[in-house]
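thread: overnight batch results

M.L. [08:02]
morning all. the overnight job finished for the chain we discussed friday. pasting input first so we're all looking at the same thing
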Amino acid sequence: YAFNLIMKEPDVQLRDRVMKCLTEHGIEFRRGSAGGGNQIRQPYLKSLELDPKNFPVLDHVHFFGFYIGNYPDLSSEEISWLCNVINNA
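M.L. [08:03]
and the structure it wrote out:
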């Protein structure tokens, strides 16, 4: 179980603050999305000779998206805590 958080604007400093904050609070996440973001950047697709720069939305998710772990039994308090951690990054 996880949810995606994708930044509206490409902000490297904010992205890095969010990553640091999630890590410091023990919140598991992956950059990108399920499967790691822009698959065109993965070695197994190299033979297609696609330029990732031709897919700006995928690249945005790749560099400014988060796949954040959760589970069905999260309490309202835990959800609020998680939102607070993210919003205060």
